[in-house]
Amino acid sequence: MTPPPPTTTYTSIPLPTGDVISRSIHNLTSAISRHRPWSELVFSGDFSLPESFSSLLLRSKTNFNYFFVNYTIVVATCAAFALITASPVALIVVGVIIVLWLLFHFFREDPLILWSFQVGDRTVVLFLVLASVWAVWFTSSAVNLAVGVGVGLLLGITHSVLRNSDELFLEEDDAVNGGLIGPNLQ
């Protein structure tokens, strides 16, 4: 009889919740700081209709990868304006939920530890989904939020289709991550 294979135990270093929040805020500000200059988004470049459908797809994909952070800010701003027309309370409540998503899901690198217990990722996502549904239901802002996000997406899509992307230059890593070029297989 052969002995059972040895088991490997992985451990994580428990971090206080304050460290997770401060690192998440740092990651958020780092992501926002990668936006392209607004003058480059609006004033520079040639705006024209694409010549073919394949040109439209390539142009929109290039612009989307290049201006991703800017488009995200535009969508968030449109959603905020739509929510503020519903009520300022809706904007505050939904804003808090968005901040919770950013801090505890998207920009968190370490396990979340509350009262010396590690909280699993599924539990965090479940809590955030329930909080999001409650916030939209409590503020009765689903329609306003959908209109704001829709307008922001329409602005971003229109810009990405109409702006000529011939003079945009991506870093090689950004182009590979965005799917514009394949990785070098040697």
TrEMBL record:
GO biological process, one term: vesicle-mediated transport
Topological category with respect to the lipid bilayer: Multi-pass membrane protein
Record InterPro entries: Prenylated_rab_accept_PRA1
Keyword Signal among record annotations: no
Transmembrane segments annotated in the record for this chain: 64-83, 89-107, 143-162
Leader sequence residues: none
Intracellular or extracellular location(s): Endomembrane system; Membrane
Pfam families: PRA1 (PF03208)
Domain of life: Eukaryota
Main localisation: membrane
GO cellular component entries: endoplasmic reticulum; Golgi apparatus; membrane
Keyword terms, alphabetized: Membrane, Transmembrane, Transmembrane helix, Transport
Homology family: Belongs to the PRA1 family.
Alphabetized PANTHER family for the sequence: PRA1 FAMILY PROTEIN G2, PRENYLATED RAB ACCEPTOR 1-RELATED
Function, in words: May be involved in both secretory and endocytic intracellular trafficking in the endosomal/prevacuolar compartments.
Protein name (record): PRA1 family protein
Species, as recorded: Arabidopsis lyrata subsp. lyrata
